[in-house]
Design a protein that fits this description.
The longest helix is centred in the N-terminal third of the chain and has 18 residues, at 16-33. The protein contains four helices and six strands; from the N terminus they run H-H-H-E-E-H-E-E-E-E. It is globular, with a radius of gyration of 16 Å. The chain has a single domain, classed as Nuclear Transport Factor 2, Chain: A (Roll). The model is unreliable at 1-13 (pLDDT under 50). The protein is α+β, with helices and mostly antiparallel strands. Helix 2 packs antiparallel against helix 3 (43-49). Helices cover 31% and strands 43% of the residues.
Length: 157
């Protein structure tokens, strides 16, 4: 089994073209969920960047919930409507890419700004990417939001 140091070394020799493509891909993923007041997230763009069998996973306290893309989009929309969220802008603060051949792991510290700055959240997005039909697709997205008990400062001062 490869050590993290070996994987990090493999990432260091990945081509700049792949790294650029992966950065652009993650940017498209964030664009799919951004929306301003009066708008909504882009379900078609989200479906286009996801592998057909992709999963979403998020922390629900002691457990992690796993769903497919369509279920995620339904739950995401319902939760935002119920919580009165009318805008969201999410951006990458620090991205680490480990890539080897047709697979990549992207560990991304994000900041999400809701309702024009009314609420700001930070956390970690863990993207598993695979080449599918010649293009990068997300096969899995897992995330965990920062809390007072689990501050990002422990990992990223």
């Amino acid at each position: 089994m490869a050590s993290l140091a070996t994987l990090a070394a493999a990432s260091a020799v990945s081509s700049p073209k792949n790294e650029t493509a992966i950065h652009a891909f993650i940017e498209r993923m964030y664009q799919a969920i951004w929306f301003d007041k009066g708008g909504w997230f882009d379900k078609d763009l989200m479906r286009s960047v996801m592998h057909p069998e992709a999963t979403f996973a998020w922390d629900e306290g002691e457990d992690v919930r796993l769903v497919d893309t369509d279920t995620f989009l339904d739950l995401f929309g319902e939760a935002f409507r119920n919580d009165g969220i009318y805008s969201l802008h999410e951006r990458s603060l620090k991205m680490t890419i480990l890539e080897f051949g047709s697979v990549a792991q992207v560990f991304d510290v994000y900041e999400a700004v809701f309702n024009d700055g009314e609420h700001i959240a930070r956390g970690i997005n863990a993207f598993q990417l695979v080449k599918h039909e010649g293009a990068w697709k997300c096969s899995s997205l897992a995330w965990c939001e920062e809390t007072p008990e689990l501050p990002l400062s422990k990992l990223y001062p």
